[in-house]
Design goal:
Two copies of one chain form a homodimer. The first copy, chain A, is of the alpha/beta class. Helices cover 41% and strands 16% of the residues of chain A. The two termini of chain A are 23 Å apart. The A-B interface holds A 131-134, 143-144, 147, 178-180, 187-188, 190, 216-218, 221-222, 225, 228-229, 244-253, 255-263, 281-282 and B 131-134, 143-144, 147, 178-180, 187-188, 190, 216-218, 221-222, 225, 228-229, 244-253, 255-263, 281-282.
């Protein structure tokens, strides 16, 4: 599968509404404009109405008087965050998207006990990559949210990623908990956690996937490497989801794929009542579009 | 600089002898045969003389009756390791190379208190990559030896890599201690260590390089990313050496560069009296040759 397939799948979905917090941002509007051009998503733009009107009439005219776009005034970032989260909570929208405001301001509303989007699960970042040398999409989690997850957190991070993968049509994905080696070494927490997660999967504590580790990256993704090593594993060489042991490892893999391998990526936050699109300024316009598409494809699971 | 430059530099060096422990291994002999064809290095092959004679006469005839190759019989792997280490200790050789024996058997001799190659420094793995998208060589350390180095160990790991980089002509290399973010966050040890290492470099406790961090990978290697982020740093966007916070991060970057980005690599163990070539079966023949060349180029520093 390619990431362009995500755009097609997103266009096939009907009635998925995205609530955008503080939408008065050219880069965010640019991505939304592209999504609307490709016929996916309806958008509720929460933010400064005057600024939004100017931006739309100057540059994003396809969003003006469009039945799939509506504007809701908010007098501050905090209010934009609150209103957008409440819209998702009230099921008026199925995806939340961050605009031009601090991530912390938005997440505070997401975690609000009265109207927030908590499910009791860990929130985690799920990125999906199209790489030049592999046919299949490869999921990397967690490159951005959880610093040093423990065993229970890792189990939930896997479950979040499995849910997203399933949402785009990858049924029973293969999950590789990544370490530096393939053997259990008590001095390396990543290897011990990987072994524990493997047995948790066999006992039905982690569902909807085939998980086997520890695996180093080469033996997780490359069948040739796994065969050379003589590994007997249902995951080795064919992993769809790479569970990272800590944020540094995830972040370095994410950036390495973009900057060294020229990969394409879309990413969302999973684990809340609805997928959350949290793009950053450094993401390309293409990447922002893939992220919206990934969220829309994942939205039915919530 | 390209890795092919290393082969040229290695050929310019005179009289660098490599002591090979348990050389009776087709893959190791293949790399040595290529090195000899390219006119670099002299090799003392410690190992089972009968097996070596057969292998050389069957396949590696350029190593037979060659003034740059001699065979020394050892009746066991342990003895081959001991004799090769002693040869380096006695300055009959300036590089140590692992052949067909367990890494642990060789390292035990390296660490022997009487005739080993200890310097009091941490031993660390230094890999140098040629990547398709960047002009300069990029060093990654430590992807293979130190599991979770503390601050002092990290300082020595940097010093080891600086020594290798300098040895191949990269004077005063720029070092980026890698983390997931660019700010100091006490909840992320990698960021705190990176800030401490930066100040240690400014105070002259880490020499021969310009070190500045924490930096995420994108802002360490890409000037465009660093400018986009508005970072003011002498290292951002131009790092030669990437210091990894832990073995998982280093290992994943190493494997990602090979398998996703199609990079070429050479690697050695630094920090002992002489560079140690520790190739593994999964390394390509080309990679083994680059590793020998890197060790030979680095040998004069010891």
């Amino acid at each position: 599968m390619k990431l362009s397939t995500l755009l097609e799948k997103a266009a096939e979905k009907q009635n998925v509404t995205v609530a955008v917090a503080a939408a008065e941002d050219p880069e965010v509007l640019d991505a939304i404009s592209q999504a609307v051009n490709r016929d996916f998503g309806s958008f509720i733009l929460f933010g400064d109405k005057d600024k939004l009107d100017v931006l739309l009439s100057e540059k994003y005219t396809n969003l003006l008087d469009n039945p799939f776009v509506c504007i809701r005034h908010a007098k501050s970032d905090k209010e934009a965050a609150e209103l957008s989260v409440k819209a998702v909570h009230a099921q008026q929208a199925a995806v939340l998207m961050k605009g031009n405001l601090q991530t912390a301001v938005l997440l505070k509303e997401v975690l609000n006990k009265d109207y927030g989007l908590r499910t009791g699960n860990v929130l985690s970042h799920v990125a999906v990559f199209e790489t030049p040398r592999f046919e299949r999409l490869i999921f990397v989690t967690d490159a951005a949210m959880n610093i040093e997850p423990g065993l229970e957190q890792k189990a939930q991070i896997v479950q979040n990623a499995v849910s997203i993968a399933t949402g785009i049509g990858i049924h029973c994905p293969r999950v590789a908990p990544i370490a530096a080696v393939e053997v259990v070494n008590p001095a390396m927490q990543a290897t011990a956690d990987a072994a524990l997660l493997t047995q948790m999967n066999r006992r039905g504590q982690i569902k909807g996937c085939i998980l086997d580790g520890p695996l180093a990256l080469d033996n997780a993704i490359s069948m040739e490497a796994a065969k050379h090593k003589g590994l007997k594993s249902e995951t080795a060489g064919q992993a769809d989801i790479l569970l990272m042991p800590n944020i540094e490892t995830g972040n370095v893999l994410y950036k390495s794929l973009i900057y060294f391998a020229g990969a394409k990526v879309g990413g969302i936050i999973a684990g809340a009542e609805a997928p959350i699109v949290l793009t950053s300024r450094s993401d390309s316009a293409e990447s922002k579009l893939y992220s919206i598409a990934l969220a829309i494809c994942s939205a039915t699971n919530h």
